[in-house]
Amino acid sequence: MNFELNILGCGSAKPTTRHQPTSQILNVRGKFFMIDCGEGVQAQMQRMGLSMMNIGHIFISHNHGDHVFGLPGLIGTMDLLGRTAELHIHGPQQVGELLDFLMSTYYGDIQYKVLFHPVDTRKYDLVYEDRSITVHSIPLQHRLPTSGYLFREKPNLPHIKRELIDAYGIPVSQINNIKAGASWTTEDGTVIPHERLTFPAAPPRSYAYCSDTVYLPDLKEIVKGVDLLYHEATYFHERALRAEQTRHSTALQAAQVAKDAGVGQLCIGHFSASIKDENALLKEAQSVFPNTILANEGLVLSI
Questions:
Q1: Is position 66 annotated as part of the catalytic site?
Q2: How many whole angstroms from its chain centre is CA 6?
Q3: Going by DSSP bridges, is the β-strand pair 31-37/55-59 parallel, antiparallel, or unpaired?
Q4: What fold is seen in the domain 3-156+202-302?
Q5: What is the per-residue pLDDT for 195?
Q6: Residue-wise pLDDT tens digits, 27-37
Q7: Exactly one of 36, 66, 212, 227 is catalytic; which is it?
């Protein structure tokens, strides 16, 4: 089943002809979660064949324009398209204040509900859960209250061995019980243990989103072992002082977090407009964590 990251934009605050402001969509088993919502998301979604009507939840990291200025147009277009389903927006309290202004000024008569869920940026906390996934906030440090997000798939039940259903005469009504751990007793009283009747499901997948933030060595404890980590890499490491001043990270620092956390793969983004050769940025990160890739508009990563 899908666990797929779609990059809509990976630039930073200053517009360029190479990149859109930050935004992503994570497709988890057909549920679309938007992460940040910079300008240009609607056009980029059309280029990538993604329907905005499938978005149920939007997770905003912080209230800087390059992460939220796509919200006004997106909310309006959803109404024009006849949306009736609720739209849930999660983020720091300042994002809620922005939404209050938008709804009272422009969208008081839209045909669907926009519901805001405040995120405490000071702690690691469960902010969303459904049958297939949990989402936790990740405390980050930037110039405004900022949160990253950790998406973890819930474990699937084991798969039953189809050939044994007929072999032992197991009725369909008992399959879910066996998946959940029950044994099966045949007509002659033989007990067939659950472990013999099933095989493990694929391990649950995970994705961590960390943008924008100063380098945080302790971040490794929260994102430890995730399959994919997206970490901002606004600058080359030679500009580490500038990164510290603006509360951003370098490519080398992002790679160090990935290495220390033992993640499966690192994707770097949020590139400064001053960077003309992002492949050099990639090489810097790969010198510390080889399994690093560059974010780019239109990139789709299956996790």
A1: yes
A2: 9
A3: parallel
A4: Metallo-beta-lactamase; Chain A (3.60.15)
A5: 77
A6: 998 999 999 99
A7: 66
pLDDT digits 0-9 by tens, 9-49: 999 988 888 999 999 999 998 999 999 999 999 999 999 99
Q: Encode burial over 106-128: b for 16+ CB neighbours within 10 A, e otherwise.
A: ebeebeeebebeebebeeeeebb
pLDDT per residue as tens digits for the range 84-128: 999 999 999 999 999 999 999 999 899 999 999 999 999 999 999
Q: Which two tokens stand for residue 283?
A: 């090489």
Boundaries of every domain in the chain? 3-156+202-302, 159-199
**Per-residue CA distances from 68 to 95, 145, 167 (Å):** 8, 14, 57
pTM: 0.91
263 phi and psi angles, rounded to 5 deg: -75, 165
